[in-house]
């Protein structure tokens, strides 16, 4: 029998209402002790006086009773919606401890839900992402994953693999006398090929799902005094970076977070690119180039009043070129967006272009996106096992069977069908207490 656990499921601190959650076999008896009998009807709120063992009133609260298995965790569970004051919460905690419940660890409610088959590992991750979601695009992706989009995909592939494995094993155990060589390649080959193609497509996603989670990164780069920091400040609508007329003002990377097209964006201002005059600036330039390399998109800035200005070398195909200082009568440059960080001219067009780029890269497609490095690693492992298996389908079917078995294991580690303790710890430790 599992412990009965409790936690505050709303954020700590003062609030109108605080929700204290309870789960485990002792939940019903503990609820009776605090809220009195009769127990409320399942899943219906009832207003009750909460009391401790000395019959002192702790609060008047809404209480709910969720008998297992039809509860979030699958166990008997209860909720007390108390007034969100520290003394009330502490008093209820004290009374719960006195009745034998213990404080929950981070993610323990969700882990129990997983262990009771209420959700698979990808759905649990989706729930963690939903709690963390700050933008519409993140919410959409998290809801899809929590609703089983990845689970359905991975479970489907697992079933396909099992069918392939049984075809291979059948051939090994009962080889047909008059089988032509390569019979197995004919029966199992197409299925393996189709799965390899499906896994390749799933992996070849421009890291869309991972970027939706962590944020799309944009680096502003260009020569000193081109106006990079001024542009960052205008896009951020605050004075995040220092602006002066001294070339080489910015050294460290200055990051601001924006929401564009419903997605999180991390915009980075960098040091002006030039042959640096001192060690501090040289380090700034090194960091600028590194950030430019790693970013999902680069904004190259040139000073329109500088006739000899050229686009930065670090700019790549598909990046955006901005000609700044249009208020000083800078000439239009082909394919570039003309702006003035001083007057704000051209920023509507710039923001529209940035939003369009982010949306084009991150908008939801038909197929669910993998959203974590964990998914990528496991799908890559399955893919390389399958490629190996396909190559030895004819000459070494036993070994090909082993490869398919490895691919099945990779799928099972994704959904949590097989116990991989460190994976479970990693997934559930991301939750905060009370989830
Ligand atoms: N007239 C005009 N001046 C601008 C504009 N944008 C920036 N400036 C000025 O240009 C100078 C340099 O601006 P910054 O934003 O510091 O330029 P930066 O590219 O960040 O420079 P470093 O950090 O030194 O590489 C400052 O004096 C700004 O006020 C603009 O659109 N028009
Ligand atoms: K400057
Ligand atoms: Mg600067």
Would you mind describing this structure in some detail?
The chain starts with a strand and ends in a 7-residue tail after the last helix. β8 and β9 (about 265-270) form a beta hairpin. It has a 6-stranded mixed beta sheet with strand order 3-4-5-2-1-6. Helices cover about 45% and strands about 15% of the residues. It is built from 14 helices and 12 strands. It is α/β, with parallel strands linked by helices and about 425 residues long. Guanosine-5'-triphosphate binds near residues 244, 249 and 250.
Quick structural summary:
Pfam families: MMR_HSR1, MnmE_helical, TrmE_N. It contains 14 helices and twelve strands.
> How much beta, percentage-wise?
15-25%
Number of helices: 14
Let me know the largest β-sheet: 6 strands, mixed
Structure ligands: guanosine-5'-triphosphate, potassium ion, magnesium ion
- The total of beta strands comes to 12
Listing every helix as H and every strand as E from the N terminus to the C terminus, the arrangement reads EEHEEEHEHHHHHHEHEEHEEEHHHH
Shape: flat
Tell me the radius of gyration.
Answer: 29 Å
Unreliable runs:
none
Helix percent reads 40-55%
Instruction: Please state the structural category.
Output: alpha/beta
Binding site for Mg(2+): 229, 250
Subunit structure: Homodimer. Heterotetramer of two MnmE and two MnmG subunits.
EC number: 3.6.-.-
Cofactor: K(+)
């Amino acid at each position: 029998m599992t412990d009965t656990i409790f936690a505050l499921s709303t954020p700590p601190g003062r609030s109108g209402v605080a929700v204290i959650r309870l789960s485990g076999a002792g939940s019903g008896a503990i609820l009776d002790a605090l809220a009195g009998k009769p127990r409320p009807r399942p899943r219906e709120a009832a207003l009750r006086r909460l009391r401790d063992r000395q019959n002192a009133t702790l609060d008047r609260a809404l209480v709910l009773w969720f008998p297992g298995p039809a509860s979030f965790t699958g166990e008997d569970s209860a909720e007390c919606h108390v007034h969100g004051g520290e003394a009330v919460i502490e008093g209820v905690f004290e009374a719960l401890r006195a009745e034998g419940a213990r404080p929950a660890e981070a993610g323990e409610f969700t882990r129990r839900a997983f262990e009771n088959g209420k959700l698979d590992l990808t759905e649990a991750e989706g729930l963690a992402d939903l709690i963390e979601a700050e933008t519409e695009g993140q919410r959409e992706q998290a809801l899809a994953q929590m609703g089983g989009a990845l689970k359905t995909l991975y479970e489907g592939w697992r079933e396909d693999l099992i069918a392939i494995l049984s075809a291979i094993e059948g051939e090994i155990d009962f080889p047909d006398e008059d089988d032509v060589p390569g019979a197995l390649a004919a029966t199992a080959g197409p299925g393996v090929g189709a799965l390899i193609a499906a896994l390749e497509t799933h992996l070849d996603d421009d890291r869309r799902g991972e970027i939706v989670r962590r944020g799309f990164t944009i680096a502003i780069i260009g020569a000193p005094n081109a106006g990079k920091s001024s542009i960052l400040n205008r896009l951020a609508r605050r004075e995040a970076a220092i602006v002066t007329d001294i070339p080489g003002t910015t050294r460290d990377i200055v990051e601001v977070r924006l929401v564009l097209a419903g997605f999180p964006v991390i915009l980075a201002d960098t040091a002006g690119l030039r042959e640096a005059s001192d060690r501090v600036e040289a380090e700034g330039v090194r960091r600028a180039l590194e950030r430019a390399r790693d970013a999902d998109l680069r904004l190259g800035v040139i000073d329109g009043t500088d006739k000899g200005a050229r686009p930065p070398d670090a700019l790549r195909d598909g990046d955006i070129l901005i000609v700044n200082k249009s208020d000083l009568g800078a000439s239009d440059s082909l394919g570039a967006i003309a702006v003035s960080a001083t007057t704000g001219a051209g920023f509507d067009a710039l923001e529209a272009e940035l939003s369009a780029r982010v949306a084009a890269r991150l908008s939801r497609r038909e197929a669910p996106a993998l959203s974590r490095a964990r998914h990528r690693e496991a799908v890559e492992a399955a893919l390389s096992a399958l490629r190996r298996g396909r190559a030895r389908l004819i000459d070494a079917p036993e070994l090909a069977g082993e490869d398919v078995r490895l691919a099945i294991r990779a799928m099972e580690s994704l959904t949590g069908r097989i116990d991989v303790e460190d994976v479970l710890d990693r997934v559930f430790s991301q939750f905060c207490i009370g989830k």
